[in-house]
Amino acid sequence: MLENITFSYFAEQVVSHPALLIAVLLTLGVILVNGWTDAPNAIATCVSTRCIDVDKAIIMAAACNLLGVLIMSLVNSKVAMTIKNMVNFGGDTDSAMIALCAAMTAIVIWAIGAWAFGIPTSESHALIAGLTGAAIALQGGLDGVNPSEWIKVIYGLVLSTVLGFAVGFVVCKLLTVICYRFDRRKTNAFFSKAQVAGSAAVAFMHGAQDGQKFLGVLLLGLFLVNGQSSVENVTIPIWMMILCSVVMGLGTSIGGKKIIKSVGMDMVKLEKYQGFAADLSAALCILLSTVCGIPVSTTHVKTTAIMGVGAEKRASAINLKVVRDMVLAWVLTFPGCGVIGYGMAKLLIVWLR
Predict the structure, then answer these.
(1) Among candidate residues 66, 65, 70, the one with its CA nearest the CA of residue 39
(2) What is the pLDDT of residues 46-60, one digit of tens each?
(3) What's the whole-model pTM score?
(4) Is 63 strand, coil or helix?
(5) What values do phi and psi take at 295, rounded to 5?
(6) Among 11, 150, 181, 202, fewest CB within 10 Å belongs to which?
């Protein structure tokens, strides 16, 4: 049983197993893509309201992503275990490694395509869909899916959509009532600083959520090359948390301006107090989901929170065209990335056998 995984042992396994090397490189590639396409959602509002310069915001997000992966994985690793146990690749671990590589390839293809159009798609759901499609291809049916773990994805989808919107609306309404008689210049000065802190909190929680998902994939790859399709009572090593967070932070620092524009500038025109309301709402929702071990999409939570904040002012404040494009990307992610994962797994299994 693999319980205490050292870096030297992991490096030895990577060198000894080419399939694991490919899987690790693909997973790190997905983490990098996640850093520049998903993580920028956390800082979109504080940039759009000019509370912080975009370059400084990206550096802040990268640092907070790193801390989120490290600290929350030490405190609570339920999300990582949910991802690891969500699919069943069966007893043939060689074919399972091929399927895992196919799933990672599907995510990269999907994420880069969405980023090219500036659409903040969810790598979280792309990861889930890609793994599920590959597992179904390998098992020849739904035996590749563990329903008790997969149902948490449905819970997460509902939470990230409904709860994000509702909490955003309520928090913004409360702030409007509380600050109604306050001097606008003073409140703007306060919310400028508060919004930066709120965005940092969302970036922290993004690292906690998405970092754990990819840690689960790295663990799964290591288990498979050792002939284990399922492992219990595993402690995630600190070095693996640091590796994941550094790569994610690097991705955030490389890019993200397209996504910031779509989420923070094009969808809803926000004032400083509204931006703070969206950030606070998103951070609270992601924290609740992480503690409960439910994998949610930072993209969905943040964008629906922004929609809720916009709706509190008036429904017409929301750019429905941008919302429509985002919703379309979300709806297509599960079938689209699932089909790519399924097709890639079938193709690689036939080709490499």
Answers:
(1) 65
(2) 777 778 887 788 788
(3) 0.77
(4) helix
(5) -75, 115
(6) 181
